[in-house]
Amino acid sequence: MLIDFSMQNYKSFKAETVLSAEAGERLRKFQATHTVVMNGKRLLKNLLIFGPNGSGKSNLLAGLKQMQTIVLNDPGKVTDLLTADRFVLAPETQLSDTTFSVTFSVGQRIYGYQFSYNAKQISYECLTITEKRRPKVYFERSAQGFKTSVPALNEVAKRTKKNSLVLYTAMQNNDCVATEVFTWFAEDLLFVGDYQPTPVVSELVGLAKNEQVKNQLLNFLHFADFNIVDLEVNEQPTMPDSHLAAFSANPSYPSYSSYQMMNKLFAVHKVYDEAGNMIGTKSLAMESESRGTQKILIIALAFINAELNGNHKTLLFDEFDDSLHLELSQAMIRIFNSAASQTQFILTTHELQLLDSELRTDQIYLVEKDFKGESQLTSLFDFKDTRHTTRGGISYMKRYVEGRFGATPIIEPDKMLDALIDTEQNMTKLSGH
């Protein structure tokens, strides 16, 4: 699971910003359900990030997504440019590198991985391993050279392009540590948006081939009030629709061999005539279902996968509530933080009523943007009067709206209307009517 993520000089985040999933010190509330201990660290199963429109909360997850993208995609040529999306509202940041850093727990180890980069090169890279609470540097790359405790990595570093990561080259050379770190980024860090036919999603969808798992999903959907009566999983090649149509008409279509087979999920719905009588069923591809249905199914599959395989994935949702009604969002928060949950869920949301869910204060983060355009991330746990309270009936939503924690939008509807009316009047004057 994710322990923490930090970044600096990326989009609206100028200063170093840390999102931590490590439980707050001496906070006992919901400890047995909302937290899990891995390699000696007590980690939170769920983080919620609140903030007004334009505050930068989506940029926070975008930074982790960008780090993942750079890790998984090695530039083909030394002249290929890296995506350097710096903070643009200060002249000094245009000359500075962007830095990403992540700490996570896998198996019996804790890994720390960090790199800094600009459009042309990786300027710094470091991988550390902590076993039995003893950290050691596995390798470190900087302008001063390359240091490692593994002699074979010296040759790997020499073969690494200036715009490539040593981690990627080491993984290609079957280094077991680099492979485990790379695999975490590729398989255990999952960004959930619209349903996408990726290898990770294909693996999760494949679980529904098991009749027992399928029945679990159908019961889950029934109690969540979704009108889906059955689920089907078919293997299909990942190819453009035009190619897929040609392949369906001719299985020996030559393009088939160049495409990977993926598990595709279909939802079965009842079909009714005009009189309301059921006359059959129809299968719809998951891509044609609502975003809410897609999200709920991926969440359920990840939950079941962790139950079956003990695979502690970290799932991230941007604008979690934008396709779910409040009651369903609240129900999912309860599931995320249940004793049975073995998966980590990190989400951004506009739904302030979720602030009053059964949450620990260290699970709640707030994002606001100052007058200089810089996004600031704060944990509710950082407010001293929230740390040790165990009293019921305290509305964090009410205190947030009152501005007790900052991060509240300043909206003046009357002046907004006046601005629109002024625009209309000005246009009338310009047109001479």
From TrEMBL:
Annotated transmembrane regions: none
Q: Does the keyword Nucleotide-binding apply?
A: yes
Superkingdom is: Bacteria
* Pfam family of the protein (one): AAA_21
Q: Which UniProt keywords apply?
A: ATP-binding, Nucleotide-binding
Task: Write one Gene Ontology MF term.
Answer: ATP binding
According to the entry, every stretch annotated as the AAA+ ATPase domain falls at: 43-370
Q: Does the keyword Ion transport apply?
A: no
Q: Which InterPro entries does the annotation name? A: AAA+_ATPase, ATPase_AAA_core, P-loop_NTPase
Query: Where in this chain does the entry annotate a coiled-coil region?
Result: none
Specify the protein name.
Answer: ATP-binding protein
The protein's organism comes out as: Lactiplantibacillus pentosus (Lactobacillus pentosus)
